[in-house]
Fold these 2 entries.
Entry 1:
Amino acid sequence: MQYAILDTGFSRSFPAEHALLTGAAKDLKSARVVIVIGEHAGRHAKSLKKWKDKAAVLIELGTESLGEYTGEGRAEEGSNVLGFARFRLGNAEPTKLVELVRQPRTGDAAFAAAKEVIEGAGLQVAVCGDFAGRIIDRLVRPYYNAALRRLDEGLATADDLDTTLKLGLGYPEGPIALLERTGLAHHFDVTQALYEATGEQPYAPARRARVAKSRMATVKIA
Amino acid sequence: MTIKTVGVAGSGTMGAGIAIVAARAGYKTIVYDTRADALERARKQTAGFFAKSVERNKLTQEQVDQIMGGLSSTTKIADMAACDIVIEAVFENLKVKHDLLAQLNKVCPPHTLFATNTSTLSITEIAAGSGRDERFVGMHFCLPAQLMKLVEMSPGIRTSDESFAAAWAFCEAMGQTPVRTKDNPGFILNYFLVPFNNDAIRLVEAGVAAPADIDRAIKAGLGYPLGPLELLDLVGLDTHLLVAEALYASTHDPRAAPPALVKRMIAAGHLGRKTGQGFFKYAGNAMFGG
C-alpha cells in the first residue's frame, strides 16, 4: 500500500535510515496512508479532517494520548487515525516493536492498512488501546522503579540483582545494567509522565532516576 | 566444614530436583519423605531425567549408575542423622516446616547445617523453629532445580557467617550460581516477578491490550524469552495465586495482590497449560491463537 511520510522534526521512533522511511512515496496527496513522524507530529492534528479519506493516518506518539489530537467523547471516538510509537529504551537503538494505538471505534480497514504498512517495513505490531504508557512502559516502569528502590535498600548488590533476573527468567540484561546503559534520566522522564497521567505510586520516579535527571540539568548549566 | 552427605526433606518437584543437583555433583544424597508413594514417584522421575541425560550425551550410563548408586530415599527421619546438610523443600507453611525441623534437630548431629528452599516465607522465622538458627540458611532453588543454575541465598538474622560461607561454598561445589539476598519476602526473583505478572494481568483486565499483543510487545521490545501471560499459563494460575497471596500477606504491596481476574479464571477452570486453557488455548504442546 502506497504511503507517504510527513516529517515534523526529530523522531524517537525513526532517528536514522529505515525501510519505512526509504519505502515511502513522495506525494502526500496520492498516498493511501499518511504517517506523521517527529516531535511536532501533534501540530498537524488540524490536518486530520483533510485526510479523512485516506485509508489510515498514523501519528507518532510520545507519552501523550492519541485522544489529545483526535478529540474524545463517550468512549465512542475512533476514525481512520491511529497512534504509534516504536519502542525504545532511552538512548538504545529503537526495537522492531511498534505499539499501534487504536481507539474504541477505530475502523478495521484503517487498522489493517496501518498494520500492513508497518509490517511491510519489517517491524512487528502490538496493538493496544489509548492508555498512558501503552503496553511496555505501563508494564515495565514499575518493575524498574522497584529494582532501583530495592538496590538503594540493599536487597542485593547490583550484580546479584541483575544475575538473578537474567539466570532466573532468561532476561537478556538485568534491570540495573539496562537502565544505566540506556539512561536513567530517560527513565525519569517516562515515569514522571506516567505518574502525572495515572497518579499511581508505582510510577513515581525512583530516587536514582531523579538524581540522574538532576545531574543532567546541573551538567548543562555548568 | 566438609560436606559429604546431603539430605533433602520433601520429595515433591523441588525436592526431587534439588536431590538430582546434589547427587549429580557427587554427593551422597538421602531424600526423606513420610510418603513412600511420593518417594517412589520421585525415584521414577529421577531415573527418567537421567535416562534423557544419557540419550542427550550429557552423561554416560556409567556416570548415571554411579550417581543413582549414591542417591537413596527413606521414610525414616532417623536416617537423616548421616547428613552434613539438610535442605528442606516441604509445603510452604511455617508450622509444617517447624514440625519437620524440630524432628530433624533431634536426629541430626550438631554440625549439620539446615537450609530451606522456601520461596515466600522468612528465613529468620523458619530458623526460629529449627533449634539451630545460627546454622540455618535460605537456599532458594529455581524451578526446575535440576536445570536452573540460580540459587538465591539468604542468611537469617541469627545465621553465623561461618554457616553462610559453608552453605555458599557447598552451593558452588554443586555447580550452581548462588546470589546473596536479604531475608526479604520473595527474595529477588519472586519479589519482582509476581507483581510484574500481576501488572500484566491487570493490563488484560483493563483492556489495554489482548494477551497475545502484551506478550508480543514484551518479547519483541525487551527480548524476554517468554511473555508474562504465557509464563503464567506455564506456571498455572492456581500456583500464581498461592505465591501472590503469600507475597501480599508479607509485603502489603498492592502490586503483589492477585488481580480479581485470577480467581475468576481459576473458577472457570482456565488454569493454564495444565487444563488446556489459560490466557491462551492449548492442544497438546501447541499454542493457538490469542
Note: The beta strands of chain A are 3-7, 33-37, 56-60, 81-86, 97-101, 124-128.
Entry 2:
Amino acid sequence: MHQSALVEVDGLVDPMVPQLHSIRRIVWETDDTFTLQLENTGRDAAEFSFLPGQFNMLYVFGMGESAISISSDPAKPNALAHTIHRVGTVTTALSLLKRGDVIGLRGPFGSNWPIEKANGLDVCIVAGGIGLAPLRPVLYSLFRRRRDYGRVLLLYGARSPLDLLYRVELEQWSKQYDVEVLVTVDRSDSTWKGYIGVVPNLFSYIKLDARATMAMVCGPEVMMQYTIAEVLRCGVPPEQIYLSMERNMKCAVGFCGHCQYGSKFICKDGPVFALPQISEFFGKKEI
Amino acid sequence: MTVIETKSRILQESKMLKENLNEVLRKHPFVGDLDETYLQILVGCAKNVHYQEGSYLCREGEAADLFFLIRTGRVALEIHAGHKGKRRVQTIGPGEVLGWSWLISPYRWHFDGCAVAEVRALALDGKCLRTKCDKDHDFGYEMLKRLSDVFQSRMEATRLQLLDVYGSR
Amino acid sequence: MIIIQRNDFDGLIDALKKREYTIMGPRLRDGAIVYDEIGSAADFPEGWTDEQEKSQYRLKARSDKALFGYTVGPQSWKKFLFPPLAKILTVVKKGKAMEVEPGNANAPPERYAFLGVRSCEINAVAIQDKVFMNSKYSDPGYSARRNNLFIVAVNCTQSGGTCFCSSMNAGPRVTGGYDILLTEVAGDNVHYFAAEAGSDKGSEVLKDVPHKNAEPSEVNAAMGLVESEGKTMKRTLNTEGLNKILADNAESSQWDDIARRCLMCSNCALVCPTCFCSAVEDVTDLAGERAERWRRWDACFTMDFAKVTGGNFRLSPRARYRQWMTHKFSSWIEQFGTSGCVGCGRCITWCPVGIDVTEELQAMRNDGDRNEI
C-alpha cells in the first residue's frame, strides 16, 4: 500500500488538510504548459508514493486547489512532478510560483492504470494534448519491465508542433525502449514533417493485434470518444480499453458530489475507468 | 535531371509490368473488392510514381487530371492562409487516397500536396477515368462509393480538428 | 415500555442537559416549525400541526396540546451534522512557507441531542452516514458529531400531506437507529409518551426521567395511533425498476416539460435531508497573510456546478434536473446501497412551482408502459 499525504487529526485522517511541498524546479514544456517538480517538506517528510493515473489536489495559498494528475515516475517518489496546463485561476497561480515556494498537496487520489493486467499483451497508449501527462507514469513503468509486454505503441496528438509535450523524451523513447511512437498535430506550418490530422486517423498506419492489445486513452473527452470508436472498430475488446475521465473536482474524496459522472465519482471510482464501467454514460449528452 | 537519369527512370517505370500493377492495386485499400473488370480499367490508367521529400504532387488551382493512391511516405496538404503563411492542415499516408477533384467539377486541385517523407504511389489518370465513369455508370458508382468513404473520414477528421479540442476555450 | 407523563417531559430535557448535550428540537418561527435549540418543553410548538401540499405549507392549530403534532418542516437534522457553512482550513503565510490548521482544530466537536427525530429522518441520517463515514474517507467533523449524537425519536401519529415514506421503506414506524423512542398520546384527558430505550445510552438517560411501567391499554393506544397513521398517507411511489425507467428515459421529452416549470432554485436540494453536495471557497484577508477555506452547501441545480475551465458539462436546466432526480432515485443505490430518498415530502412542499417527484416518476413509468405497447 502506498503512503498518502493525508493528515491525521485526533487519530482520524482529515482528508481535507494538505501536506506541504516546495517547488524544486519549474520546466516550461510549451508556452502554456509547465511541469512542477516538488519536494516534500511536510511534517512527516515521509515518502510519498502513488500509482500511475492517480492525481493530487494542489493548493496555492489563498487561491484554491486544482486536481492535477501526477506525471512523474512512480518508482521515483522523491522526484514527484506534475505537468500543468495553465487555463484557470489556480493553474495560473501555480504557473507564477518560484523555486522554493510552498504549496499544499493532498493525495494521491483515484484509480490507476492497470499496468499489471497488461502482462503479455501489446500496450497501445493514446494521448491527446495534456492527456499525455497522466500517461507518462505508465510509460516509465512499462520501460522498467519492457520484456513483460509485447509491442508498446504511443499515439500522441496535439494542437500544433509547439504544443507537443516531452519532445526530447518522445524521441528517446522510440530509440531506447522499442516503442513505436506516432505523433500527429491538428495543424502546423511547413517545418513539421510528421503526421497532420486527428489521433484516430493514426490507427490507419498501424496494424493492431486487437485481441491481444490493451489500450489506455487520455485526452479531451471528444477526442477520447472518437479514439475509442476507432479502437473498438479495430477489434480491441471493450474490457481491455481504459480511459481517464475529468470533471469539476473540489474535494477529491467523494463528499462534495461535483465530480459525479452518471453514478460514478470520478475522484474515487475513477479517474481511470475500464470502458465497460462507464459505457452506459460515455458519449451521452450532458451526463 | 540528366538525359541518362531520365532514361533510367523511364526504364525503371516500364519495368513495372502490368501484372505487378495489378497486384499493387489490388492490395491498396481504395480498391478493396472491386470487380476484376473494373480493376483492369484502373490498371490501364495507372502508373507507379515516386516523389522526393519536399517535392509537390499537386498545386492549388492546377488541373486535377491525376489522383494518387499512396503506398509509402506522407503527403501534407498545404493551404496559404494569408498572414499565417503556408499552413499544413492534414497529411495523407500509406493506404490512403490523395485527390478527388478529378471527378468533381471544375476538376482543379484545392491545395498544394507536398511530400514530407519520400512518397511512392500509384498515379491514376483521372481525366481518362472520368470519361470512363460517364460512359459506364456502374463503374462510376464504384468509384464514387470509394470516394464517399474518403469524403466521410476527411469530414469527420476536419470537424474534430475544427473543435480545437486541445485549446482552453 | 414505560410511560412518561406530559408534566414530566422536562425531566427528559433536564436529564439530557445534565449530560452536557446541546438539545435541538422543534420550534415555531416565521410561520414554520424549524429545528433549533431547546431549553424546555415550553419551547415546543405545543398544539400546532402543519398542512402540506405541493408548494404549500401552513401551520394550523390542533385541538389538543401535542408537542410533536406536526410532521416535517423546511429543515432537516442535516443542518447540524453537516452544517451549511463550515470552516475546513486555516492557512497562515510564513515567508515562502505556510502553516496549515484543520478547521475544527480549536473547537471541540458538538454534543447534540436531537429531540423528535422521525423515521424518515433516522433513515436520512443513516444515508448521510454512508456518504461521510465510509471505508475510504471520513469527514472528521461529521464523525465526531455523529458519535456524540443522542437521538430521541418519535413515531409519527399522522402523515404529512406530502409524505410517502412507506413507499421508500423509511417509515412510518421507527424501527431502529435511536437511543430513545417516544410515541405521544395526546387526547382530552390524557397526555403521555410511551417510551422505550434503543441503546444503553438511552436506558441510562431514561432512568433519570420520572416514569412508570406501561399498561397494556396505554401501549395499545400508542401503537394504535401509529397503525392508523400508516393508513392516512396520501402519496405513494412505485419504486420497482426505477433504475431502468430512469435509464431508458434519459432523453425523454418529459425532462423538457419539467425544465419549463423548474426555476433551478435548489429549494428541493436544500430542504432534502440526504442531499450532500458542497462547494469550497477560499478567502484571504486583505494583507494576504491569512487564508481560510470554507465549505458550504451546494446543489447540482446551480449553473456552475459542472463547470470546468473552458466549459460546462451540464448546462441546460433539463440536464440539471435530470441529474438530481437520477442521482436521488437511481445512481444513489449503486453508490451507497440504498435509495437517496426517504419519502419525507419536503421537496414537494417547498418547490415554489409544485413539482412532485412522485408524479413525475409515475409519468415516466406510464410513458414507458405506453411505449411497450
Note: The mean pLDDT of chain A is 92.
